[in-house]
Amino acid sequence: MIQFRKLRLNRGAKVLIEDATVQLHPGWKVGLTGANGCGKSSLFALLRGQLHPDQGDCELPPQWVVAHVAQETPALARSALDYALDGDVELRRVEAELAAAEAEHDGERIGLLHGRLQEIEGYSAGARAATLLDGLGFARTDLTRPVSDFSGGWRVRLNLAQALMCRSDLLLLDEPTNHLDLDAVIWLEQWLRDYRGTLLLISHDRVFLDAVVGHIAHIEQQRLTLYSGGYSEFERQRGERLAQQQALFDKQQRERAHLHKFVDRFRAKATKARQAQSRIKALERMELISAAHVDTPFHFGFRPAPPAPDPLLDVDEGAVGYGDTPVLSALTLTLRPGERIGLLGRNGAGKSTLIKLLAGQLTLQTGQRTDGKGLAIGYFAQHQLDTLRLDESPLQHMTRLDPTAREQDLRNYLGGFDFRGEKDGVGSGACVTSACGPFSGGEKSRLALALLIWRQPNLLLLDEPTNHLDLEMRHALTLALQDFDGGMVLVSHDRALLAATCDRFLLVHGGRLQAFDGDLDDYRDWLATQRAAEQAAQACPDQAADKAARKAERTQSAEERKARLATRRPLLKEAEQLERKLANWQKEKSLLDTRLADPGLYAGQDTALLQDLLKHQARLTDDIEAAELRWLEVHEALEALDDTD
Predict the structure, then answer these.
(1) Nearest-CA neighbor of 127 among 151, 152, 91, 78?
(2) Which of 6, 94, 148, 565 has a CA between 20 and 30 Å from the CA of residue 125?
């Protein structure tokens, strides 16, 4: 097990953890929580042997293999699959020794090493690594690509795959979901539930923590406290403890005030001096109880936006992509004020492409887009932090954004995002006047959100806005979005944010955008169905191909039948109309022929009437002949369609 006894951990002169005594048993899955800078990452460094306790002990079994996610990924020429396999250090060692033994023709050594490969499941390691990479969103064609081809976010996923590939006793994961999308988060959640070793997990995703961990180790005011249950249970227990602590604090303050009052009244009186001294000693012996502190440093909301048009934006039968290759087709979407949409879809389906189209960063290849008059878009991209000027402070960013605003108003606003104090003065590292270059990822994300919200948008387009944000900031963002009056389209791997702020979901799948009738649990089931179908296709490619061919044939036959039916219907309708007309015309002509056969009509003096009747007879004859000819053509066409069935 992992044991902390009277542990004290410092970073420089700052005390991070004081007098911690905690036991973590093998197989436990523990979430490590606390404010930024409280010592979570330092505790991980301690468990990895990179730091040493300043006081007390930190013990874990010496034979344990500890796995963690590397911070850097060199631009290697080796393939992604080989890089993931490097996580199993023993596998690579056995493979190297086996190659050496084969070169030396050492048969006994070769046999022993093959036996060890069998024991560590080395023969299936490639398949396991491929499964890991698939779960983390890599396509099959990515497995052979060199590591150097991948961007920074994808290299982080490669490091995560390497850590998961390690057959570890202790797995340390620090914000593993930051660079994942929702389907990869759900896959990782299931993988960690099945993990048999001991897990320590730092995460700001409360749904992820609830699904994976059975204990929470919380660092607060230099104290490390262990709670049983997931994150929701931890919040309940901590709330009860803080309420009890506040009640004890209030009671103690009343007692201390009473003792102070007695001492002040009777200290100078000889008859009461001894009693006063005893109360002074009681005050000195009284252990001070601190007041409960649960206040978040984040308080902000959206400024009132100008009147919004209705609709805000409309896309009709659009197609969007890169170059001549469409990513999404037959795209029809209308966004209205107050509408809150969450985009779902697997990695690479086109969610970010759709957001870029709505933000105006991509143009339609086909179709039509109509923006409402007065549309004001606020767009937060996945790489929004790259737009910050690293040599400028938060206050300078805000001043450039709104030169007419009062400085104090800007300072007050930035304070809601926890940018306070002065450079080299009182305040945290993320001061309002400090250059943002050294800021952490979370601090830069907070600044980017502050700049976005100040612009007063009436349509928000948010692509993974919670990356690098801690739990408190995510909660503050959730509350602000709930009060936002405009329209919103959100892509996020944070299910708590999606569930709390979105009224409906749209699914991006197969190059199309469609309504998703269900919640996030239904989406998890949908993902499982998709993965099962893909695995079945990979396991039996011939059968899957045959099944796909039969399906395609059925689809084609159905479409042909539909097309024939679409052609047949108007022909049948036209034949019926012709038959009705012919019946009426023939009846009318028969009556007219009878009348014209009367000799008296020709003996009379009304020659104009006779001429009219003869002309009408000729017209009816022509109409009947034309209708009969068309009727024959229609029936020939119907017979031709029947022959193709």
Answers:
(1) 91
(2) 148
Q: Show Cβ contacts of residue 136 under 8 Å, excluding neighbours closer than 6 positions.
A: 157, 160, 161, 180, 184, 187, 188
What is the SS3 string spanning 89-103? HHHHHHHHHHHHHHH
Cβ atoms within 10 Å of 524's Cβ, excluding its own = 18
Q: Which of 186, 185, 136, 181 is nearest to 525 (CA)?
A: 186
Please work out, in degrees rounded to the nearest 5, the angle formed at the alpha carbon of residue 12 by the alpha carbons of 7 and 14. Answer: 65
Residue type for position 330: A
Who has greater pLDDT, 557 or 497?
A: 497
Cβ atoms of residues 402 and 411 within 8 Å:
no
> Exposed e or buried b for every residue in 473-499, given b needs 16+ CB within 10 A?
bbbbbbbbbeebebbbbbbbbbbbbbe
Question: Which pLDDT does position 261 carry in this prediction?
Answer: 74
Q: Which two tokens stand for residue 370?
A: 């109509």
217, 31 contact by CB (below 8 A): yes
Q: Which residues contact 579 (CB under 8 A, 6 or more apart)?
A: 631
Check: CB of residue 110 under 8 Å from CB of residue 102. yes
d(CA 24, CA 161): 25
What pLDDT, in 10s, does the model give residues 159-199?
999 999 999 999 999 999 888 889 899 999 999 999 999 99
Torsion of CA 248, 249, 250, 252, to 10 degrees: 80
3-state secondary structure (DSSP) of residue 30 = strand
d(CA 82, CA 331): 39
Query: Alpha-carbon distance 522 to 401, whole Å?
Result: 42
User: Which residues fall within 8 angstroms of residue 24, CB to CB, at 6 or more apart?
Assistant: 1, 2, 3, 30, 198, 200, 215, 217, 226
Phi-psi region of 300 (alpha: psi -120 to 50; beta: other; left: phi over 0): beta
> Cβ(155)–Cβ(178) under 8 Å?
no
The two three-digit tokens of residue 77, written as one number: 């020429």
Distance of alpha carbon 326 from alpha carbon 354, whole angstroms: 11
C-alpha–C-alpha distance, residues 531 and 500, integer Å: 27
- The string of DSSP codes covering 131-156 is HHHHHTT--GGGTTSBGGGS-HHHHH
Under 8 Å between Cβ of 9 and 42: yes
Omega before 311 within 30 of 0, i.e. cis? yes
pTM of the model: 0.71
